[in-house]
């Protein structure tokens, strides 16, 4: 198979991400977001919020991470973040990434798998910021949808604050403080309990 045909095969296969439904609904809509929409949203969010990163980041690397970070969900499906941080779930996602990236020619997938692994470990400044940004749309969705997915999945305010304070604060303390204020308002309004 020619290299260009292999890339086209990969691009066709990742269309399946559009069929992976997430647990939150886009602002103003009563349908669930798909993972491809989420990837677009976090990529543009990173571009808009890059100046608020705790450390200097390579925004091109961050955007690449965010565009691929959920491709493994094609095989593993989406699991709400408050339940997904298990090694079994992460192994299933990584195996999905390996399967997809093997479709690419000439070891092209190696760079992308390294970026995916870097995102997952969250050790570099780029990965910390990417992981922070990954949390923004689900919070926005819940804040503007009366806490729909928090309520549906019995997510407590302690879970929301603990996970997001660490995840977002590691990448952007400024962003966390702005979102924390909105979350506190949601608690006062009875949206988050």
From TrEMBL:
Q: Which InterPro entries match?
A: HD/PDEase_dom, HD_domain, YfbR/HDDC2
Please give the cofactor(s) recorded in the UniProt entry for this protein: Mn(2+); Co(2+)
> Per the record, what are the reactions this protein catalyses?
a 2'-deoxyribonucleoside 5'-phosphate + H2O = a 2'-deoxyribonucleoside + phosphate
- EC number in record: 3.1.3.89
UniProt keyword list:
Hydrolase, Metal-binding
The molecular function GO annotations come to:
5'-deoxynucleotidase activity; metal ion binding
Which residues are in the HD/PDEase domain?
31-148
Q: Establish whether keyword Zinc-finger is in the entry.
A: no
What Pfam families does this protein map onto? HD_3
The yes or no answer to whether the keyword Metal-binding is present is yes
Q: Which SMART domains match?
A: HDc
User: Among the entry's GO cellular component annotations, what is one?
Assistant: cytoplasm
What is the annotated quaternary arrangement, including any partners? Homodimer.
Official protein name in the record: 5'-deoxynucleotidase
Q: What is the species of this protein?
A: Veronia pacifica
């Amino acid at each position: 198979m020619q290299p260009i045909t292999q890339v086209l095969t990969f691009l066709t296969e990742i269309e399946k991400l559009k069929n992976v439904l997430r647990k939150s609904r886009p602002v103003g809509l009563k349908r669930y977001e798909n993972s491809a929409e989420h990837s677009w949203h976090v990529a543009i969010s990173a571009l808009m919020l890059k100046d608020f990163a705790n450390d200097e980041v390579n925004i091109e690397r961050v955007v690449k991470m965010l565009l691929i970070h959920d491709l493994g969900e094609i095989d593993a499906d989406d699991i709400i973040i408050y339940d997904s941080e298990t090694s079994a779930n992460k192994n299933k996602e990584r195996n999905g990434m390996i399967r997809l990236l093997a479709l690419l020619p000439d070891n092209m997938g190696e760079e992308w798998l390294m970026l995916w692994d870097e995102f997952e470990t969250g050790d570099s400044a780029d990965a910390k910021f990417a992981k922070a940004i990954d949390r923004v749309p689900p919070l926005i969705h819940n804040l503007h949808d009366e806490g729909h997915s928090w309520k549906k999945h019995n997510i407590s305010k302690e879970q929301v604050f603990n996970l997001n304070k660490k995840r977002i604060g590691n990448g952007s303390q400024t962003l966390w403080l702005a979102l924390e204020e909105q979350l506190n308002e949601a608690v006062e309004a009875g949206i988050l309990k």
